[in-house]
Amino acid sequence: MHQLPQTLVSGLALGALYGLIAIGYTMVYGIVQLINFAHGEIVMIGGFGALTIHLWLPGSTPLGAALPLMLIGGALAAVAVATAAERFAYRPLRGAPRLAPLITAIGLSIALQQTVWAFYPDAKKPRLFPQFHGNAFELAGNIHLQRNDLFVLVAAPLCMIALGFFVSRSRTGRAMQATAQDPDTAELMGVDTNRIIVLAFAIGGAFAAVAAVAQGLRAGQISFEMGFILGLKAFTAAVLGGIGNIYGAMLGGVVLGIAEAAATTYIQNIPGMHQLGGAGWKDVWAFVLLILVLLIRPQGLLGERVADRA
Amino acid sequence: MTALLEVSGLRVAYGKIEAVKGISFTVDEGQIVTLIGTNGAGKTTTLRTLSGLLTPLDGTIRFDGHTLTGTPAHRIVALGLAHSPEGRHIFPRLTIAENLQLGAFLRKDTDGIRQDIQRAYDLFPILGERAHQAAGTLSGGEQQMLAMGRALMSRPKLLMLDEPSMGLSPIMMQKIKATITELKASGTTILLVEQNAQAALSLADRGHVMETGRIVLSGTGAELLHDESVRKAYLGED
In what order do the strands lie in the sheet with B58-63? Predict the structure, then answer.
């Protein structure tokens, strides 16, 4: 049990990262009922955007000073690609059968991976990403907070607060809620719903870039295929929290992150299960959790039952 | 009298099924015009096309000097044409106050918006009492009041009401009728779609009877109210 506080801290940091990506899935789904399976690749693009800025800056730039610029660069790249995907890949298919945009998303995901693989310098293997140097912070007794975890634990709440205020308080945010609830009627109010849809993709892209930088700092490297498993985990988090609900996405991310950390730490201690624990099995337990939630509460933790919307 | 709205030769189809088969009518400024007819006659399709939610196959729509055909719905509101849709379509998870504010989405005059919200509360006190509750918690009749109040928030030149009496108690219907009369008196032009022909014709300056996508009979409200075929088909008399 003495490992519990440390497990929670690590799990929370990982979960915040998943949550940031899950926001992108949930916002797009909430407004156009599309699972944007290329969203993991938007994260990857954000990572390479940030890396590009890092490579441009003089080698002597301290990471603390470079980070804001890397975040901006990553966000610009991710937002540009996400909104272009909406405009040129998804919008022409609006009103087409559900399967068409879904297959397009999968195709787009492969195309983005291969484009980076083929054209980004030396991207055929993972590329090194800058990392914080220096020791972890000691919070108490034996609990350590890694510097890269601190980054995501500060960035994710800031992003969530900003998004919460924007959606519930601003005029455009209210138009966004209206569009999610009833797009035709939102148009009748004078809301340009196409603009709102682009905005949802853009916000998802910006959050994806923050997550990509967090992931780069954590792993010390990024690769053209990093978006696959991250995207899958974040999609799981979005479903777990109740897809369409932004707070649900973050909650789902945190629950998933803590569950993974706990499974990694504890399952190997259960008699007879030592070979099912450890980091190698964490993805398995994450998806077991998803299956359990879908069986017990199909609408997700904060989701609304579809029947309520009739 | 100048025509505020001029529809001519309008045809609308869903896929291969033509729901509106070439209708023409005008709405003069300050008038109440009603389209009556049974379910499936094409009344709602007509309104949805006028407000830009549907694209016509053919025909022209002129409103206040603008040609609307091909204009997206969100721009049409800006020209002064508001549409309170069939089935109310309030935003269920936004509050009543937020629904009303969305009705004024394109307006910038904060003070005027606040006054108009107050006017909606005066008109329908229940909306004021429950201003900060989710609109989905309102009863059907209350939602109808909200939908009407919301459509008025854009200060439209022409207000299109689709089945405002649907699901209402007789007392509420009187209230809605009185409101429509009041709106007319204050200079709002109204295009009213109703299945309740009696109520609609007694309010209207002009009426058009629609059957399977065509206008089959037109006249003043009083003429249609006393027309034998109308009385038989729509007023339940034999």
Answer: B17-28, B3-14, B58-63, B66-67
The predicted pLDDT at position B53 comes to 95
Contact B82 A191 (CB under 8 A): no
Q: What pLDDT, in 10s, does the model give residues B128-176? A: 999 999 999 998 889 999 999 999 999 999 999 999 988 788 888 888 8
The token pair that represents A165 in the structure block: 């205020």
User: Could you tell me which of B181, B95, B188, B196 has the C-alpha nearest to residue B146?
Assistant: B95
Chain B residues in contact with A193 (beta carbon < 8 A): 74
Select from B36, B69, B70, B61 the least CA-distant residue to B158.
B61
Tens-digit pLDDT profile for residues A245-267: 999 999 999 999 999 999 888 88
Span A126-167, pLDDT tens digits: 999 999 988 888 887 778 899 999 999 999 999 999 999 999
Q: Select from B53, B78, B85 the Cβ nearest to the Cβ of A190.
A: B78
| B26 three-class SS | strand
Token digits of residue A195: 């603009």
**Nearest Cα residue to B73 out of B103, B50, B90, B57:** B50
Q: What is the dihedral of CA B171, B174, B180, B185, to 10 degrees?
A: -130
Structure tokens at B88: 């109310």
Cβ separation of B102 and A175 shorter than 8 Å? Answer: yes
> Which positions in chain B have a beta carbon within 8 angstroms of at least one beta carbon in chain A?
51-53, 72-74, 77-78, 82-83, 85, 89, 91-94, 98, 101-103, 105-106, 150, 154
Residue whose C-alpha is closest to residue A179's, from A24, A28, A35: A28
Rounded CA-CA distance A39/A48 in Å is 14
Contacts of B120 (CB under 8 A, 6+ apart): B100, B127, B128, B149, B150, B152, B153
Instruction: Please name the helix (run of DSSP H) or strand (run of DSSP E) that holds residue A138, with its range, or none.
Output: strand A137-140
Per-residue confidence band for A223, with pLDDT thresholds at 50, 70 and 90: very high
